[in-house]
């Protein structure tokens, strides 16, 4: 089974429609609503097992909503914009929570925030909003690694014999995810600059 692009029908083009209330969009909203539950479980209750389960469910819905969208022709323009934004905000909110809880150091949060801050600045400069670029393959792999590594890291806080194994696997996934995060950001930077310059040249020539 394919993990990237799962659900796509061979020979059929992927069309983003104007629909708003679709199953994938609802799942994206549900995924983001899991963030406050995770924050409460970690900071207020210190229930790391339940918090890891919430993260695992959130990671699962990220794959499921993409599969449903492609398989059942429910891809939408809103979902194309909302899904990566929900992923970014969720990962950042979870990272902030883990820093406050002392599970990770501040540098992990900085490593996540710096590329996103650069991309946000360029997007606002060239487009005054979202650049509407397709998600790259390495971006999808990056997100998957971070979504897998984070619950493993939370599980490593449990008093179980396998805690060290969880910790090792977590940092393998998170380390590779952070490398992919910076590589994807580098590619997006040049894609935004290229698209932005083309747009400005077109707008200037049409006046």
Structure commentary:
- The chain has 6 helices and no strands.
- The termini are far apart.
- The chain has 207 residues and is mostly helical.
- Helix 1 (23-45) runs parallel beside helix 3 (77-101).
Low-confidence stretches: none
Number of helices: 6
Q: Structural class of the secondary elements?
A: mainly alpha
Name the average pLDDT.
Answer: 87
What amount of the residues lies in strands? under 5%
Topology order in helix (H) and strand (E) letters: HHHHHH
Largest sheet features: none
Share in helix = over 70%
Q: What is the CA-based Rg, rounded? A: 18 Å
How far is the N terminus from the C terminus? 50 Å
Overall, the morphology is globular
What is the number of strand segments?
0
Brief summary of the model shown:
Helix content is 75%, strand content 0%.
Helix and strand topology:
Layout lengths: L22 H23 L2 H24 L5 H25 L4 H22 L9 H19 L7 H43 L2
Helix pairs in contact: 1-2, 1-3, 2-5, 3-4, 3-5, 4-6, 5-6
Relevant terms:
207 residues, globular, 6 helices, mainly alpha
């Amino acid at each position: 089974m394919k993990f990237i692009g799962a659900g796509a029908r061979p020979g059929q083009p992927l069309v983003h429609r104007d629909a708003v209330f679709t199953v994938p969009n609802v799942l994206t909203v549900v995924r983001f609503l899991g963030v406050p539950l995770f924050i409460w479980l970690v900071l207020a209750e210190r229930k790391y097992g339940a918090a890891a389960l919430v993260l695992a469910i959130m990671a699962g819905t990220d794959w499921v909503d993409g599969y449903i969208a492609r398989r059942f022709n429910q891809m939408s323009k809103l979902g194309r914009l909302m899904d990566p934004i929900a992923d970014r905000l969720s990962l950042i909110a979870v990272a902030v929570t883990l820093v406050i809880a002392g599970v990770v150091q501040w540098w992990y949060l900085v490593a996540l925030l710096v590329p996103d801050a650069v991309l946000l600045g360029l997007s606002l400069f060239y487009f005054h909003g979202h650049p509407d670029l397709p998600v790259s393959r390495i971006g999808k792999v990056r997100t998957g690694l971070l979504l897998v590594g984070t619950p493993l890291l939370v599980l490593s806080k449990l008093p179980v014999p396998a805690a060290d194994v969880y910790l090792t696997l977590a940092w393998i996934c998170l380390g590779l995810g952070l490398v992919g995060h910076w590589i994807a950001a580098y590619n997006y930077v040049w894609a935004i600059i290229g698209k932005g310059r083309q747009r400005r040249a077109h707008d200037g020539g049409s006046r």
